[in-house]
Amino acid sequence: LTDPRKVGVLLRDIDAYEGGFLTRCALQLSPLLFVRPGELRRAEWSEINLEVAEWRIPAAKMKGRVMHIVPLAKQALAVLRELEPLTGPNGWVFPGNRTNGEPMSENTVNAALRRLGYSRAVMTAHGFRGMASTLLHELGWPSDVVERQLSHAERNTVKAAYNHAEHLPERRRMMQAWADHLDKLRRAQTPK
Questions:
Q1: Active-site residue flag, 137
Q2: Which candidate in 65, 98, 155, 162 is catalytic?
Q3: Are 178 and 32 in contact (CB under 8 A)?
């Protein structure tokens, strides 16, 4: 989904989700953080610093095997603070339903989207990345900043060899502006 009106409807549907609390929180964080679904479900409290407002995903958990920093907007912090008394302060942010010590199932967010009426052709857990990328670019955020937040490696090997910029201050601003934009879309009423 990249149509702002339809994104607003999706966000309202997520807020009204009547399934499990952990699943609703995962759904709420998916558009705010737009990390890969596997990174979200395997998040650990030891990686998240609520005071500094960032999540440092270890290299071993990343597709590109490079540590990734996710700045946390106020809205993401609010969801995490709701979760912490239930699943924190140690272990998985999203523990699985079984007692085997594993995180939430890889199918949980996609199954919740289906329960909300979104077919696989319309929206998937991974689709929040495309949504964020498209809308952030349309909002005028620099491609280097958006791509770095998506944890995409530079494809130009010469540029990659010389440019190690993390753009962290701008990414912090972008993530808060993105969360604020999602709030605006959520509040916008779609005409009948």
A1: no
A2: 162
A3: yes
